[in-house]
Amino acid sequence: MEPLLTVKDLSVSFNTTDGTVYAVNNISFDLYPGETLALVGESGCGKSVTTMSLLGLIPKISGNNMSGTAVFNDGVSKKDLLKMSEEGIRKVRGGQIGFVFQDPLNSLNPVMTIGQQIAEPLMEHLKIDKNEAERRTIELLERVHIPDAADRIRIYPHELSGGMRQRVMIAIAISCSPKILIADEPTTALDVTIQAQIVDLIENLSKELNLSVIWITHDLSVVAGLADRVLVMYAGTGIEIAQVDELYDYPSHPYTRGLLGALPNPDMESSKRLISIPGSPPDIYTAPYSCVFASRCKFAFDLCHKELPKLVELGNNHQAACFIAEQLRSEYV
Ligand SMILES: Nc1ncnc2c1ncn2[C@@H]1O[C@H](COP(=O)(O)OP(=O)(O)OP(=O)(O)O)[C@@H](O)[C@H]1O
Ligand code: SF4
Ligand SMILES: [Mg+2]
What we know:
Rossmann fold; 8-stranded mixed sheet; binds iron/sulfur cluster; 4-stranded antiparallel sheet; 12 helices; binds adenosine-5'-triphosphate
């Protein structure tokens, strides 16, 4: 099967008054039709910047740099999302690629009704009139299980609970029948029972609509339940990628091992955030030139401090960026 999205060597750096921030460094991954890929890693490791790049949301100011390719195959043509014009990427964003962010209140416009906020992108992307947009808006609200949808289109975001607001964001995200949905920590701002409902909703919609999902999270219990594959990120780099079962059964990068070692039980029924591993991530003002995990790794040896390990194939479509990954993988056999 051909990937829907192929990201290759994506790097993003920001010019700040304190120096250049190397936020994302040579990240590569594929996203296949209908699959859910989870991006997992500690705060600041570059998860959001990675997906913001795909949506054309990296500020284009002098000194900021973005390189690499992100080829999106929409079935008709292939286009590099990183090289598109402002107008081109605006059509893709909210059209072929929907997105849901962490905080629904900040993502919605407080002075526009729910109905207007769903209908406007529909009219813009699908070139339909107001009546048709309103009909579709009610359908979309019903699809995300908002009760009394026909009445709710006239209310404002502050009149809804956090969970309901996130449902509205999801309705907007799927409104133009996207091929990809980017969900950046969509449940973090919600309480636990509502979190589970939103996870279920996105999971069900992705099956019904055959959506490919990039799901960003800290929550390993969520990952185990909903992802097909996982990309573990550390300090702006992709350090391990595998099918979810393969990764949980045979974590082969010391960082992933540390994260999984924290889980309270193998079924991961309870919600558990990533533990903190002793030490701190490397300086983000220096481009990586050696293993980014070396200062915290109990296996580190000379080479780790001198050279940057590349992702190596370990079999079973499992890759890890560590000089001893094959050895660590073989310990399970
Ligand atoms: N516009 C910007 N200017 C300067 N630095 C930035 C900018 N946006 C992000 N960064 C930096 O890039 C790094 C990666 O940020 P990013 O938001 O992708 O992390 P994250 O993995 O999504 O973290 P979290 O889990 O907290 O959301 C961080 O060090 C962040 O401070
Ligand atoms: S390359 Fe070296 S420092 Fe990096 S994770 Fe592997 S063993 Fe640890
Ligand atoms: Mg983030």
